[in-house]
């Protein structure tokens, strides 16, 4: 194997690595966006549980049904929240218990977001270094020709 082939193999390896970093940055960015949306949902749920202290049985409320749409409803149990616990299972908790659970979830999600941001930063730095190496190789090839 001559030096030119070895160099081309190295260049191909660096290009492959660059593409892998790009894909990883994209995947982490997508996961970060989804996780941040989940955080927003949890923050809204915490806000609503806070407001539950100011409502009484029989109060009229707007119930979200998705896509920024609501239906009118009458509050039957202002001291109870039905909260999802996973796998499509929901349980009834007091408003305070639900709020505590939501706060724990928020803390977990904030931790995940911080980790994703750290990973994204690290991979972005590696991507930048790899891009610089590729630019140097291209410059050397242009000088050689």
From TrEMBL:
Keywords: Chaperone, Coiled coil, Cytoplasm. Heterohexamer of two alpha and four beta subunits. It comes from the Archaea. HAMAP family: PfdA (MF_00308). One of its GO terms (molecular function) is unfolded protein binding. Belongs to the prefoldin alpha subunit family. Belongs to the prefoldin subunit alpha family. The keyword Amino-acid biosynthesis does not apply. Molecular chaperone capable of stabilizing a range of proteins. Seems to fulfill an ATP-independent, HSP70-like function in archaeal de novo protein folding. Residues 99-140 form a coiled coil. InterPro entries: PFD_alpha_archaea, Prefoldin, Prefoldin_subunit_alpha. SUPFAM superfamilies: Prefoldin. It comes from Candidatus Argoarchaeum ethanivorans. GO terms for cellular component: cytoplasm; prefoldin complex. Its main location: cytoplasm. This is Prefoldin subunit alpha. One of its GO terms (biological process) is protein folding. It is found in: Cytoplasm. NCBIfam families: prefoldin subunit alpha. The keyword Cytoplasm applies.
